[in-house]
Design goal:
The protein is 27% helix and 39% strand. With 158 residues, it is an alpha+beta fold. It has one domain (8-156): Pnp Oxidase, Chain A, CATH 2.30.110. Strands 1, 2, 3, 4, 5, 6, 7 and 8 form an eight-stranded antiparallel beta sheet that branches. Strand 3 and strand 4 (53-59) form a beta hairpin. Helix 3 (108-120) crosses helix 4.
Amino acid sequence: MFRPMRRFKQQLPDDEAMEVLKHAKRGVLSVTGDNGWPYSVWLNPYFREADGRIYFHGAKEGHKIDALRKDNRASFTVIDDGVRDEGGWAYTFRSVVVFGRVEFVEDHAFALELCRELARRFNPSEDDIEKEIQMAGARLQMLCLIPEHITGKRIHEA
């Protein structure tokens, strides 16, 4: 169903791809948008090792939500910080692409707990996190990307 990687010598071992995904702070979710046009948006992911799924937060309405209600297939791409060549301009970095289907997290209590886990990656203050949840938690929509295919790749820019 999914293509094999063309540049297979650059393919990351599965455990290394999972590490990149686990530590990624940002990534791009791509879906089929209005009139079949691709729609991509930057998101902050939370890769939950307990179930191997990727979670995102957002509002309950908007372009992304409308697109996912029509077609829940998506791809999600992340890269690590990379390493700059000594004395040069080029970087070597690792990327991961995940193909899967997105589900809406309907259990609100679970969605709030997932949101807390995601927030802890960016803000260590439990008080700040709880204040934000009190302000915006009612409008929260958590999304869950269930991976069907994951590939990682080492890329050297030069």
